[in-house]
Amino acid sequence: MDMKKRIHLELRNRTPSDVKELVLDNCRSNEGKIEGLTDEFEELEFLSTINVGLTSVANLPKLNKLKKLELSDNRISGGLEVLAEKCPNLTHLNLSGNKIKDLSTIEPLKKLESLKSLDLFNCEVTNLNDYRENVFKLLPQLTYLDGYDKEDKEAPDSDAEAYVEGLDDDEDDEDEGEEEEYDEDAAPGDEDEEEGEEEDEEEGEEEEEEDISGEEEEEEELNDGEVDDEEDIEEERGQKRKRELDEEGEEDDD
């Protein structure tokens, strides 16, 4: 598939100004040049053209917002000075697997003041003596060269992966935001149900307490009644005994 057709398919009914990421890997370039990409892609931040047969980036349009450019596994051997003009805000550039043989080829990159990461894997230039030291001197703005900083500490993620993950995170955040909004809409009903259940439980507990206290009062009344009955019986017995004694006394007098 040629590059123009691939770009048309990648648009998916969107306008070029809506596109922030464009992946054209493994398609065919015409005469080793970028075709079909115009300055209408003004919001483009990530462009990947891996293994498309590029020999030049001269046809690259003006892309002021482009930050990450993948050019690996092509046949580029020079002409990198156009990048500072066409993509002045580049932070990550991958030239792995191209035909870059000496430091003079990458010297124009020093005009990319925001460039933090440069990859030159599988380029002949990496075989030069003191390659890493000389590249960091030539491009002092660099933080990472071939995935490692000056102290040989590895970069957190590869450039393209880190950027794509960032895009995925943005999409996930949007999805989470929608879910949270949905939950917030549904929450009031759930809260009312929970509050209703709690109120029912509290009322049930109060009723149980009232039932228990009522039973205790009834028991106390019954116990009081039993005591009163016993006292009455004792009193009757005492009166009866007294009458008997009085009658015996009268008989003795007779």
TrEMBL record:
UniProt key word Nucleus: yes
Q: Which GO terms describe its molecular function?
A: histone binding
One annotated Gene Ontology cellular component of this protein = nucleus
Pfam families linked: LRR_9
Note whether Repeat occurs among the keywords: yes
Q: Which GO terms describe its biological process?
A: regulation of apoptotic process
Q: Where is there biased composition of kind Acidic residues?
A: 166-235
What are the start and end residues of every segment in region (Disordered)?
A: 166-254
For this UniProt record, the keywords arranged alphabetically read as follows: Leucine-rich repeat, Nucleus, Repeat
Subcellular location as annotated: Nucleus
Q: Which PANTHER family match?
A: ACIDIC LEUCINE-RICH NUCLEAR PHOSPHOPROTEIN 32, ACIDIC LEUCINE-RICH NUCLEAR PHOSPHOPROTEIN 32 FAMILY MEMBER A
**This protein's name:** Acidic leucine-rich nuclear phosphoprotein 32 family member
